[in-house]
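Title: Comparing notes on inverse folding

I've been comparing how different people in this forum approach sequence design from structure. To keep things fair, I'm posting one structure and asking everyone to reply with a full sequence. Here's the target:
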């Protein structure tokens, strides 16, 4: 079948910009919702400067807010070799006895993990001892910085509790400091429930109970989805064009009740959907494209969203697509569905669900900036970033945020 839209043969050099080191936020603000919020209206190509606390005045009354409920795991672990050499392990995703992070983290049994390995001469078969003596890691595979380890411990506690006790918060590589006790709280959103991320869904870091109460008072409903953030989100695109880049895979989940709440909102006369963060957007758009495939006649047992879905599949109304997903779940008796998304969103992609995106400011030349350009358009995305730099916004995970509106409010 001929693709409906061309794959994004975009030069990645076009999505670079100069980000001075002193604009990268090393620490969060004392109050989460005190961050600046750049309000960008795509249809009018207008920019205004507000704060996150203004969000309840900005969002349309009775609209829908979709957030990511993933919880960050204390996935950085410090080990030593028998020779005394230091080895750092960053857990990425479990491979056994389950690929579901929730199952593995809740268990007190040994598990195997894909990971990043930092240290010299770390070879398969090597037994590593955690610096506290609380656990061991047997190296099963090693290739460059990547590997697979088997974790074992003797205390009667879940791996989750063990990591909370022995692990470190996996701050992004551009934050040039060690994690501390403040990060244990501030690098989690107030929505965090499902354990499995190795990086925070950072737009959600700005929310407070006070802000949620203000949104509720305005009649704004909330739906929760899950995307477990992997380190691929920080990887630079080494390909010359976006079409040559291979997207990383991330696990997505949604509950049947949450999906129904989104469907019911879309039945309103003028539904308006705001997604908090690129992770929520990728999850919702992945569900949409899965539904479009179902409408076209597919009926897979596993949910795997192809990288090029937003370019090659036939789009359908968002209500119909999500109803198709709900029916697929009902046929299988599922109260929660999970899958794997490779979805790339870039200029030229069809966006099926989102009316507005709240997101922090991203690194030059990565896939998240392509996603912003898909929402905001080109060259308006660059005007947004230029304005943020000129107005002293703080960038990246602990930085300020933007609110990009595609559908006029």
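Reply #1:
Here's my take.
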């Amino acid at each position: 079948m001929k693709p409906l839209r061309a794959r994004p043969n975009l030069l990645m050099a076009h999505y670079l910009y100069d980000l001075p080191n002193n604009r990268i936020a090393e620490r969060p603000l004392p109050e989460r919702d005190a961050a600046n919020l750049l309000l960008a209206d795509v249809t009018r190509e207008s920019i205004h400067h507000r704060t996150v606390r203004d969000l309840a005045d900005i969002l349309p009354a009775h609209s829908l807010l979709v957030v990511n409920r993933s919880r960050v795991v204390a996935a950085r672990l410090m080990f030593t070799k028998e020779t005394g050499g230091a080895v750092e392990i960053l857990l990425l995703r479990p491979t056994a006895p389950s690929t579901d992070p929730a199952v593995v983290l809740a268990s007190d049994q040994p598990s195997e993990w894909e990971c990043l390995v930092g240290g010299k001469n770390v070879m398969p078969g090597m037994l590593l001892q955690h610096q506290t003596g609380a656990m061991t890691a047997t190296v099963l595979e090693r290739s460059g910085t990547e590997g697979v380890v088997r974790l074992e411990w003797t205390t009667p506690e879940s791996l989750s509790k063990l990591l909370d006790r022995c692990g470190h918060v996996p701050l992004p590589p551009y934050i040039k400091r060690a994690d501390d006790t403040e990060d244990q709280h501030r690098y989690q959103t107030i929505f965090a429930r499902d354990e499995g991320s190795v990086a925070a869904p950072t737009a959600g870091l700005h929310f407070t109970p006070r802000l949620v109460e203000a949104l509720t008072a305005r009649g704004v409903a909330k739906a929760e989805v899950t995307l477990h953030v992997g380190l691929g989100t920080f990887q630079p695109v080494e390909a010359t064009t976006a079409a040559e880049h291979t997207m990383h895979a991330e696990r997505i989940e949604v509950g049947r009740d949450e999906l129904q709440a989104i469907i019911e909102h879309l039945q309103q006369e003028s539904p308006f959907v705001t997604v908090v963060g690129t992770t929520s957007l990728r999850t919702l758009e992945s569900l949409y494209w899965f539904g479009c495939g179902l409408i076209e006649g597919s009926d897979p047992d596993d949910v795997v969203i192809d990288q090029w879905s937003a370019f090659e599949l036939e789009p359908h109304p968002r209500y119909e697509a999500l109803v198709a997903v709900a029916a697929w779940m009902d046929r299988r008796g599922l109260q929660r569905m999970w899958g794997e998304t490779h979805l790339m969103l870039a200029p030229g992609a069809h966006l099926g669900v989102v009316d507005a995106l709240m997101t922090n400011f991203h690194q030059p030349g990565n896939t998240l900036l392509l996603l912003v350009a898909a929402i905001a358009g080109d060259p308006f995305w660059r005007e947004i970033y230029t304005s943020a730099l000129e107005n002293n916004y703080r960038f990246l995970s602990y930085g300020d945020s933007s609110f990009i509106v595609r559908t006029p409010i």
